[in-house]
Design goal:
By secondary structure, the protein is an alpha/beta fold. It has one domain: 3-Layer(aba) Sandwich (Trna Endonuclease, Chain: A, domain 1). Helices cover 39% and strands 23% of the residues. The protein has six helices and seven strands, in the order H-H-E-E-E-H-E-H-E-H-E-E-H. The chain has a five-stranded mixed sheet with strand order 1-2-3-4-5. A two-stranded antiparallel ribbon has the order 6-7. Helix 4 links the parallel strand 4 and strand 5. The protein is globular and about 45 Å long. The protein starts with a helix and ends with a helix.
Amino acid sequence: MPDTKTELQVLKSLHDLTATQFEKALVELFRELPHVHHNITRTRPTKDGGFDFYGEFSLPFPLGYRIQFLGEAKKYSIDSPISPDKVSRLVARLERGQYGIFVTTSYYTKQTQEEILKDSYPIKLYSGIDIINFLKELRLIDGGQIKSDWLRSIINIAN
């Protein structure tokens, strides 16, 4: 979890978004990350099949390898860690060869992390501090807040 007041404030502003707005913001963060070639699509807000976004990451030439993924974006309070049962739904939706991405404003219990590692699930867990680091990498934090023009443009995206 973030340990500075500024980082906690940024995380709180993400937590204050609606679930749909939060999903839009996360998908856009992934789209904008440098050095990653990918195609990512947000699912519809309801009846989404148990995941919030999906897509494909591409490793550039000379590897030329594509990795399909399913992802979940969940807002949880910073004092409510993610337990294994929350991640198990994503695990159950993965098909052979797919990768899972679970992103939360909170953090993961030790048991959740151990189960993912022990069972060798192809899942990457991103916590609140990871989201902060994405925002920093993209220079989207200004004066202790997410840049409002960027956030407004994301929230107003039609899909």
